[in-house]
Amino acid sequence: MDLGISGKRALVLASSRGLGLGIAKALADEGCHVLLCGRSADKLKANADAINAAGRGKADWVEADLSEADFVDKMLAAVHHKLGGIDILVNNTGGPTPGTAEEMTAERLYNFFQSMVVRVITLTNALLPLMQTQGFGRILTVASSGVFEPIPNLALSNTLRSALVGWNKTLATEVASYGVTANMLLPGRIHTDRIDELDAANAKKAGKTVDEVRAASVKSIPAGRLGKVEEFAAAAAFLCSVPASYVTGTMLRVDGGAAKSI
């Protein structure tokens, strides 16, 4: 299938590793000019160089931290100078520290709310007029399966990512007539460094080994394994495509059938 996005300009947040990097690579494979961003200049440069060496798309990068107050301004400047505009925005953020609902403090809640919700919405609103004017835009927000089936010991993530669900649905109805779609992509157990970190934290909390925790989680997945970043990224690329023009306001789960809800 021709996704019709060769030459499109895409900003992918938190793309120095993991799911964000996987999505950036998938979009570049379709011929997009991708802008990577994250906190590690070394990783970003290496990943951009690898994408450019592959020769299918083009990559630039900018060092930026979602937790910093000037993040949105820095990203707007980078979009202007490195991309010259925007067609695709992938809102991806790192996950907050594990913990229970009782362990949430006002300070932690506020700080992660700023980086995971406020700056995502502010940046999206700032880039929307460019998409609306040209009559094409794709806004894809990566969240978590915890928004429909809360994940134990991830209270902050369950809470903050759920805030984006109502926002995305509202936004989708407001911008659909401009040729702009807004969807959410929800990963289950996709094997990344983040999953390894969470398994280690859960193992410590439960007094078990990481292998025991991993085996129990895999047993609960009908597919019988963890997902691959490439599988998740392929779903992202489709939602950013021209053939997906009539798909908006949706949440797509990529979880190997793990969710028990309908």
TrEMBL record:
Gene3D superfamilies recorded: NAD(P)-binding Rossmann-like Domain
One Pfam match: adh_short_C2
Superkingdom of origin organism: Bacteria
InterPro entries the record matches: NAD(P)-bd_dom_sf, SDR, SDR_fam
Family indicated by similarity: Belongs to the short-chain dehydrogenases/reductases (SDR) family.
Official protein name in the record: Uncharacterized protein
Source organism per UniProt: Ciceribacter selenitireducens ATCC BAA-1503
